[in-house]
Design goal:
Order of helices and strands: HHH
Mean pLDDT: 87
Low-confidence stretches: none
Number of helices: 3
Strand content: under 5%
Shape: flat
């Protein structure tokens, strides 16, 4: 990546951080770095990776996508 004229260079990262800021960061004011780190970890592990639907996965959560994928591989 990072080539000149590559339109999709940072699209995935920019989309993630846009959602991340709207869904978590702009909603709170953190007084300590520790509280921010705790919230970021909780957001990623308990919401983003297990609950939040993703368009690239057919509007299911990554956890549900993994479950569906494993079920189709076993069958």
């Amino acid at each position: 990546m990072s080539r000149k004229d590559n339109l999709y260079d940072n699209a995935i990262a920019e989309n993630f951080f846009s959602c991340f800021k709207c869904e978590l960061i702009h909603l709170k004011r953190y007084t300590t770095q520790s509280s921010a780190q705790t919230d970021v970890f909780a957001y990623l592990e308990t919401f983003y990776n297990s609950v939040r639907p993703h368009s690239a996965l057919g509007w299911v959560s990554p956890a549900q996508f993994k479950t569906n994928l494993l079920a189709t591989q076993v069958a």
